[in-house]
Amino acid sequence: MRAFSYEKPASPAEAATAASRNPEAKFIAGGTNLLDLMKLEIEAPTHLIDVNGLGLDTIEPTQEGGLRIGALVRNTTLAADQRVRRDYAVLSRALLSGASGQLRNRATTAGNLLQRTRCPYFYDTAQPCNKRQPGSGCSALGGFSRQLGVVGTSDACIATHPSDMAVAMRVLDATVETVKPDASTRTIPLGDLHRLPGDSPHLETVLEKGELITAVTLPKPAGGTQIYRKVRDRASYAFALISVAAIVQRDGSGRVAIGGVAPKPWRVEKAEAELPRGAKAAASALFADARPTHENAFKLPLVERTLDAVLAQARS
Amino acid sequence: MVAAGACAALPAMPGAARAQPVSRGEPVTASVSMSVNGENRTLQLDTRTTLLDALREHLHLTGTKKGCDHGQCGACTVIVDGQRINSCLTLAIMNQGVQVTTIEGLGTVDDLHPMQEAFVKHDGFQCGYCTPGQICSSVAVLDEIKAGIPSHVTADLTAPMAVSEAEIRERLSGNICRCGAYSNIVAAVSDVAGRQG
Ligand SMILES: Cc1cc2nc3c(=O)[nH]c(=O)nc-3n(C[C@H](O)[C@H](O)[C@H](O)COP(=O)(O)OP(=O)(O)OC[C@H]3O[C@@H](n4cnc5c(N)ncnc54)[C@H](O)[C@@H]3O)c2cc1C
Ligand code: SF4
After folding, report:
1. Stretch (H or E) spanning B133
2. Strands B29-36 and B99-101
3. Contact assessment for residue B48 and residue B106, using Cβ atoms and an 8 Å cutoff
4. b/e burial code for range A305-316 (CB count within 10 A of at least 16 → b)
5. Site residues for ligand 1, CB cut-off 6 Å
6. For A93, which residue in chain B has the nearest alpha carbon?
7. Are B187 and B158 part of one and the same domain?
8. B126 is a domain residue
9. For chain A, where are the alpha helices, taking DSSP H only?
10. How far is the CA of A116 from the centre of ligand 1 (A)?
11. A28 in contact with B at a CB cutoff of 8 Å?
12. Phi, psi (5° rounding) for residue A164?
């Protein structure tokens, strides 16, 4: 691990300013992704800004009848919150399907959204990877790509975003609140937070240098039957091969977001219009532009069948 | 290919204590105080030192084990302010003022914690390397169920929590046992849960 200096600011604005002062600074929250990557020197900040202790760790009701989740709320706390369990069950379920009890006790809302890909070549510093080292090439194209993306990918990168939580937040129409170093704030719809890779896969979000996530806001409860179904190689403690987050209403209408298939939670308006017609119609709209590799083409029928099971569960 | 099991090199330990960063790339040290197994400890550490390395290398509490050093195996599990965490994925300096309980703090050879006793009784280990992490995790798991925290296998998110074999297995999935002592670990934890009522 490279050496770094460390500070623990007292307010979100101070944290953002501190980050803008040093181009090699990084925020650290739970540390469960950043420290892992720092040990491998995939991340090598020379300054760490500890954002624990900024008072961003509460879950408050909003005037609109929703919930405002502080950026530092731990994954365990969020999953266990009675309001989330009752009104946003898909979010509790997604969180509980991710990582382990130990990790969820530390992992935070913002850190989870900004965790980096689990592409094995991104982790292997001996291999070319455009995300880790821009311009070096993509080892996954033509390599082992079973776990990687099938849609929204590019010739430069086919990595997926690994978060379960983000998929549920996407289907719930969450928005992300931030503060910038100049103290201005903005609200970003969750669907706009992550960029598609195009020819610059190292740029993963629309956040600017020093921009700090302060909260994630959920609109008022969407009702319906809320389901998160994760398909993985082990029954527990594994990243998703694919996952389906769905909110299905009595009349068969609903919303659906897919995890494990794209560089961001994958949600397509047209597919939702097809939901009442069933999984096949919805899946073909979701994957109209899919470009799977021969190793991960199985993800397309897997999503369709999982969605079918989810819709059946919602009806029963 | 993935870093599973690959131990990153130990960070270089500081020579003389320095308060401020000097120049880029040079080690930086900082002071941290925490309560470890009920005793107040203050350490001057390289900022890179994980809580795990602070416990093992600086406080010589070698009960807590380093397995993968990447949060994947759970051997480094300790209890911080009542919650189990992977001590390899948190920096010591981020843990200013916390209360840490390690396996040494749960019980001693002459005065075993009920969970330690149950692991012995049910043969919940073979080589023993993952055991301190398993036991710290198990103690915290029962507290989590008591506190009403749901898990992936909890059927009804709004009903009261109950201990079951499925719950114990799911909640302990972050602790890997290469000897495969899982059945006996589950028996040990169920035993303690039953006695706690
Ligand atoms: C073994 C293992 C298994 C896992 N399995 C799963 C899984 O199945 N599903 C899943 O979804 N996840 C899984 N995870 C990932 C885990 O969920 C993430 O590591 C965690 O959510 C990251 O949160 P953190 O607070 O620890 O982030 P950190 O590591 O502290 O930070 C991550 C990134 O976010 C940035 N950041 C943090 N807070 C802010 C902020 N407020 N504003 C701006 N930037 C910020 C940091 O600078 C850093 O770049 C797993 C992790 C491990 C180690
Ligand atoms: S898919 Fe993306 S992350 Fe993986 S090797 Fe290619 S460029 Fe790197």
Report:
1. helix B131-146
2. parallel
3. no
4. bbbbebbeebee
5. A 26-34, 36, 51, 71, 98-99, 103, 106-108, 110-112, 114-115, 162-165, 212-213, 239; B 71-72
6. B152
7. yes
8. yes
9. 12-21, 34-39, 75-80, 82-87, 89-96, 101-106, 109-113, 120-123, 165-171, 190-193, 269-274, 279-286, 299-315
10. 8
11. yes
12. -80, -45
The verdict on residue B169 lying in a domain is yes
Q: What gap in Å lies between CA A73 and CA A53, rounded to an integer?
A: 11
Nearest CA to ligand 2 atom 8: A129
pLDDT in tens, chain A (316 residues): 999 999 999 999 999 999 999 999 999 999 999 999 999 999 999 999 999 999 999 999 999 999 999 999 999 999 999 999 999 999 999 999 999 999 999 999 999 999 999 999 999 999 999 999 999 999 999 999 999 999 999 999 999 999 999 999 999 999 999 999 999 999 999 999 999 999 999 999 999 999 999 999 999 999 999 999 999 999 999 999 999 999 999 999 999 999 999 999 999 999 999 999 999 999 999 999 999 999 999 999 999 999 999 999 999 8
* Helix locations, A172-298, DSSP H: 190-193, 269-274, 279-286
B132/B89 same-domain check: no
pTM for the structure as a whole = 0.95
Same domain, B53 and B84: yes
ipTM of the complex, rounded to two decimals: 0.97
Which one of A102, A115, A164 would you mutate to disrupt binding with B, by most B Cβ within 10 Å of its Cβ?
A: A102
Domains identified in chain B, total number: 2
Does B123 share its domain with B144?
yes
Q: Is A5 in Cβ contact with B28 (below 8 Å)? A: yes
Is any ligand 2 atom within 6 A of the Cβ of residue A262?
no
A218 touches ligand 2 (CB under 6 Å): no
**Residues B139 and B83 grouped into a single domain:** no
CB A220 within 8 A of CB A172: no
d(CA B7, CA B52): 13
Q: Whose CA is nearest to atom 48 of ligand 1?
A: A34
CA distances from A254 to A26, A151, A272 (A): 38, 22, 6
Which of B88, B105, B122 lies at the terminal end of a domain, its last residue? B105
In a domain, B11, yes or no: no
Say how far apart CA B33 and CA B21 lie, in whole Å: 20
Counting from 1 in the atom list of ligand 2, the atom nearest the Cα of A138 is 6
Q: Are residues B77 and B97 in the same domain?
A: yes
Of B84, B87, B91, which to mutate for an interface test with A (greatest number of A Cβ within 10 Å)? B91
CATH of the domain at B49: 3.10.20.30
Residue B16 located in a structural domain: no
In terms of residue numbers, what domain contains B130? Answer: 114-196
CB distance B85–A105 less than 8 Å?
yes
CATH code of the domain containing B166: 1.10.150.120
Let me know whether B78 and B146 are in one domain.
no
- Are residue B89 and residue B138 in the same domain, yes or no? no
Which of residues B73, B105, B137 is at a domain's end? B105
